[in-house]
Amino acid sequence: MVKIIIKNLKFWYGKKQVLDDINLLIENKKITALIGPSGCGKSTLLRCMNRMNDLISSSKIEGNLIYNNKDIHKDYEDVSILRKQIGMVFQKPNPFPMSIFENVSYGLRAAGIKDKEILKKIVEESLKRADLWDEVKDRLDSSAFSLSGGQQQRLCITRALAINPDVILLDEPCSALDPIATAKIEKLLIKLKDEMTIIIVTHNMHQARRISDKTIYMLDGKVIEYSETKSLFVKPKNKLTKDYINGEFG
Amino acid sequence: MFLVKGLKINKEKIIINIFLIVSVTTILILLGIFLFLFFTGIKTFNEISFKEIFFGTDWNPTAYGEPSWGILSLLVGTLIVTLGALIFAIPLGIASSIYLAEIASPKTREFLKPTIEMIAGIPSVVLGLIGIFFLSPLIAGLFGLSNGLNGLIASFIVGIMILPTIISVSEDVLISLPKEFNEASLALGATKWQTIKMTLIPAALSGIGGAIMLGLGRAVGETMAVLMVAGNSRGMPTSILDPVRPITANIAIEIKEVVSGSLHYEALFLLGLILFVITFCVNVISEIIINKQTKKYKW
Amino acid sequence: MVKEKTKEKFYFNIFRICMLFTIFILGFILLYVIINGYKVINFRFLTTMWNHQDITQGGIFPAIFGSILLGIGISIISIPIGICTAIYISEYAKENYFTNMVKISIRNLAGVPSVVYGLFGLAFFVFLLNLGTSLIAASLTLGCMTLPWIITSSEESIKSVPNSFREASIALGATKWQTIKKVVVPSSLGGMLTGSILGISRAVGETAPIIMVGATFYISYLPTSPTDKFMALPYHLFILATQHSSPDAKAYALGTALVLISLTFIMNLGIFIIRYKLRKKKEW
User: What is the pTM of this model?
Assistant: First the structure.
């Protein structure tokens, strides 16, 4: 089943074209990895999917992204509704300067939920889903900054989970973390894919290989190859992909 | 070769010493300001008790019979003008800074920032003129007063003067927040306003407090505009519509009339010392607050 | 969710209105001064001596002249000293507790009220150094007041020079002074001058200190020596507004205010030009 359809997508920052004619079908309840050298447009593509690029005033977009039969850029007058369904986790852990509880409940409060009991319940559930509950249950009121880097990043994933998104976008979520923290996050993502669609940008090919079902290789704003992760890494169809995964690239 | 090197180092030593001497002189002068005020002002206590000065409500050093030296009414004058100015300038200034930092487009910002700096550049006498010629008749008419020179109008004028400080410092604080807060909040489906309300303002709160403190320091020390519009009556003010005589105005009015070295002269220096201490402390505290704020979210 | 959108619009409009009101205040002040002041401005007003009996017959030339002299006096005193001090404390002085205290004190002296500087000037320059109420006493007093502003802004400007510039210069065998002269000062000069001019233009508009140490409302001659008394624009308009009985005083006060604002505006224009010229040069 297809979750997001990308049709003829082109994207510019100012005059610089960053994405060129992207056509993709993102599958439901799978982990899709986006790999490619830095500057290839993988993060930009990811940020198109929940319209985070709206924040950049000089950006321009053409083509369509279809999600739930709706065009992401044209049919969502209120972008916050879209972002509640398509959550995002960023490269650097970015907890708010608030308590752990307030961090996890942030999206819910923004959605207008005020009832303390409901908030408590969902916060607990979400922390459990993210396997973080046991580590933080005794200090929900202490600052999120008191957590370690890996815990902070898992808190950010929890925060996104709390509003129960349908799709979750991760932009190199482990690039600032050590191998142990990375392993925890990878385990979590594999567990979560039964419930939601996950799209992850990574510059770590091994990570893509370990956790993803499908892999997209991008170069210079174009999709070079898109296939099952196994076949992409074992038998790449395109020579450019082969060069990249063999480390012969740049 | 050796000679050239020797000369080079010698010349450098001389220059460093010149710089050192200039800097030390500067620092001595600036220190001297405080010492002068302190040693002149403190002499007042040789003749008048601490209690009479700080708890007396009547300031009348040139009375024929028994001169009185209570500065309470002057302090209250300063307090009224400062608080009034803050009540006016805080909401307006913070709202403007939020607009500048979070809502305005980059182009609008580029236009508005120097415009606000221009308000800071208007000499205070000019604002005093506006107070006398425009606002005072307006206020007199509005409240049915014989003239409109009072605490209210002084508060308003001083409020205008401290607006640029509050706006630009709060704006700096808001701008210096990590942009990650903004992204994280929007990605969770919060609207821009929710982001501002739930994340940015709480994160910037102490820095905004520092900006307000800085404004407060300015308001306490403002002289000319206050002198022109506050009415300057010595009596204890009972309402904001009464004329007031803040410390700064009192110094400016009386210093020309006093004999150097007289008790009255020393008492005015004591008032100057009080002003110095208040403003200096307020500024140091606000600097510490703002510094802490800008370092708080450096990961 | 629709509700949230409406709320957002509502609050953003409040912020927008507040900003507009702030700008409106500025616009109003300028317009008020211009509309009420421009009528009295003519060639005679700007170039002739003050006529105390009939203000419509005289001009404010001595006040303009006095304010310009005062500006020059303040510049001579405070710009070189301020910039030298800033260079010393940010480039040479050791990073320690004492230096830090000095820096903090100087920055915060910038917030001490002008009337306090006036008191100091009166006691120190006028009485103790026996300079009398004079142009030199006023320049020294306002110079002291401007120093912290100039030092602080110069320091900021020096701080913004990337450390890699200094390292590159030292690595090429230059001495510390050569590095300062060839690298640090050229790249921070714009900021230092901008800060200095801004400080001077604010000092020229100050009134309270010069009331105490040298300005006078009326003299029949132009000052010829630093120990002369002088007339100054801000003091002149203050007296016209508060103590002159002539029915024309209001218009003349506002006319004088217009001249004063124009003078500071011209100085700010200078800043703008310096910024513009230097912005092209340095792009790192």
Answer: 0.88
